[in-house]
Amino acid sequence: MKIAIGNDHAAVEMKYAMIKYLENHGHEVINYGTDKSERCDYPEFALKVAKDVAANTVDFGVLICGTGIGMSIAANKVNGIRAAVCSEPVSARFAKEHNNANIICFGARIVGEQMAIDILDSYMNAEFLEGRHQNRIDIISKSERSAL
Asked: Is 65 tagged catalytic?
């Protein structure tokens, strides 16, 4: 898979760990995050990842900041993005199965490295269940189009 990853200053080390983990499992990773620990503005990185995901140039995105919340808010401003903040694997699985989330977000100040890996694994091993869930996504997508 081709995966876009973005982070802010709070998540530089975690980003490196996630890139290493993903590449060791055969995935191509596009790094849109900062490599510096100096304060920066997370929306810039979130929007780069979200635009790539929305354009279908990558399979999905990973966003990491202090809590994951700011990144998810910014990414969800892009039409077609369903970014979900998850702090444990069960929510990550449901984010994919029920919401067809195309960006997974988590906080480097909230979860440790192993939990982040578990969240990623749970998300990547899940599949969208479609059915009644597709109708809900269609409602969201229609709302995005009418908001333009």
From this structure: yes
